[in-house]
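Researcher: I'd like a structural prediction for the single chain below. Treat it as a standalone chain; there are no partners to consider.
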Amino acid sequence: MIILVKKQQIIISAFRGGISLRAMAREIGIDRKTVTKYVRDYEEKRKQLLEGKMMLMLKN
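Model: Treating it as a single chain, here is the predicted structure.
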C-alpha cells in the first residue's frame, strides 16, 4: 500500500515538472503505472476545479 506522503511526492513532482514519470517511479520506488494513474487523476480533478471556477466567474 502506498502512503499519502508518496502520493503527494508524485503529484508535487509532476506539478513542478522537469522529471519524467519513469524517473519519478524509480526515485520513489513504485510502479510507473501507479505514478501515471496518480498524475492523471490529479490533472483531471484540477481541470474540473478550474472549469468550475471559470463557470462561477462567468456567472458573476
